[in-house]
Amino acid sequence: MLFWNNVNFRHGEQYAIDAIQQQLLSAILRFGVATSVSKLTPSLSMAQSQQQQQQHEQ
Questions:
Q1: pLDDT band (50, 70, 90) for residue 1
Q2: What's the pTM value of the predicted model, to 2 decimals?
Q3: Phi-psi region of 55 (alpha: psi -120 to 50; beta: other; left: phi over 0)
Q4: How confident is the model at residue 26 (pLDDT cuts 50, 70, 90)?
Q5: In this structure, what is the dihedral angle of CA atoms 13, 14, 16, 22, given to the nearest 10 degrees?
Q6: DSSP letters of the chain?
Q7: In angstroms, rounded to a whole number, what is the distance separating the alpha carbons of residues 18 and 53?
Q8: For 27-58, what is each residue's pLDDT tens digit?
Q9: What pLDDT sits at residue 58?
Q10: What is the separation of C-alpha 5 from the centre of its chain, rounded to a whole number of angstroms?
Q11: Cβ distance 48 to 56 under 8 Å?
Q12: Superkingdom of this entry's organism (predicted)?
């Protein structure tokens, strides 16, 4: 982003910035979904195993 200060965009400036922002946004969304899924999966399996242990104890 720093190099943008040294370059005067004329043609397609807004288009280039929009494309970069879209790519960043989609990458952030994919990363967020992937991390939340990877965090949810172990906690879900832990909850299931805890339920099974409780059922066995009763």
A1: very low
A2: 0.46
A3: alpha
A4: very high
A5: 160
A6: -GGGGG----TTHHHHHHHHHHHHHHHHHHHHHHHHHHHHHHHHHHHHHHHHHHHHH-
A7: 52
A8: 999 998 888 888 877 777 777 777 777 777 66
A9: 60
A10: 28
A11: no
A12: Eukaryota
Give the amino acid at 19.
Answer: A
Query: If you count them, how many residues does the chain have?
Result: 58
For residue 21, give the nearest of 11, 10, 29 by alpha carbon. 29
Which residues lie below 8 Å from residue 9, measured CB to CB, with a gap of 6+?
16
Q: Which two tokens stand for residue 8?
A: 């005067």
* Residue 34 amino acid letter: A
